[in-house]
C-alpha cells in the first residue's frame, strides 16, 4: 500500500472518529503528495524516497513552528503543531538514537577519511544521503561538527 493510499484510508478513519487534529495533519500530508504529483515534470507515482522527503519536510515545518510558538509563549498553538507532528511521525521510519547516530557518523568519518573541521562538507554530504529519514538534519550536523572538532583537538 502506497503512502497516498494509507493516508486516504486514515483520513476516512479520522473523519469517522471525529479526530480534528489527526484529520488536519493527514490532509496536509495528502496536500503535499498531490502537489508533488501534479508538479511539472514529476513522475506519475512518487517513489518511497520522495514520499519520505515530503514527510520529513512536513515534520520539519511542524517542529520549527512549535519552536517559534514556544518562544512567543503561545502554548496553545505549540500544542497543535506538536500534535500534528506526532501524527506525521507515525509515517516516518524510526529515528536513530543519539548513540546509534554517533556510531554511524564515526563510521562515515573513517570511511571518508576526514581529518578535521575542514572536511565537514565531505562528511555531511555522505551522512545526509545515508541517514536521510533516520535522523534530523540538525542532529546529523551537530554530531558531525562535534566529532570533527574533537578529532582535530
Strand-helix topology:
Blueprint: H1 3-17, H2 20-38, H3 48-71, H4 75-89, H5 98-112, H6 120-130, H7 137-152
Helix pairs in contact: 1-2, 2-3, 2-4, 3-4, 5-6, 5-7, 6-7
Organism: Adhaeribacter rhizoryzae
GO molecular function: carbon-nitrogen ligase activity, with glutamine as amido-N-donor
Protein name: GatB/YqeY domain-containing protein
Question: How would you portray this structure in words?
Answer:
By secondary structure, the chain is mainly α. The chain folds into two domains: 3-90, Uncharacterised protein YqeY/AIM41, N-terminal domain (Hypothetical Protein Yqey, Chain: A, domain1); 98-150, Arc Repressor Mutant, subunit A. It has helices at 3-17, 20-38, 48-71, 75-89, 98-112, 120-130, 137-152. The model has no long low-confidence stretch (mean pLDDT 86).
- CATH evolutionary superfamily of the largest domain: Uncharacterised protein YqeY/AIM41, N-terminal domain
| Share of helix, binned | over 70%
Distance, first to last CA: 50 Å
What is the total domain count? 2
Biggest sheet details:
none
Instruction: List low-confidence stretches.
Output: none
Rg value: 18 Å
Order of helices and strands: HHHHHHH
Computed structural class: mainly alpha
| Inertia-based shape | globular
Q: Helical element count? A: 7
Give keywords:
Asn/Gln_tRNA_amidoTrase-B-like, Hypothetical Protein Yqey, Chain: A, domain1, YqeY/Aim41, globular, carbon-nitrogen ligase activity, with glutamine as amido-N-donor, GatB_Yqey_C_2, mainly alpha, GatB/YqeY domain-containing protein, 0% strand, Arc Repressor Mutant, subunit A
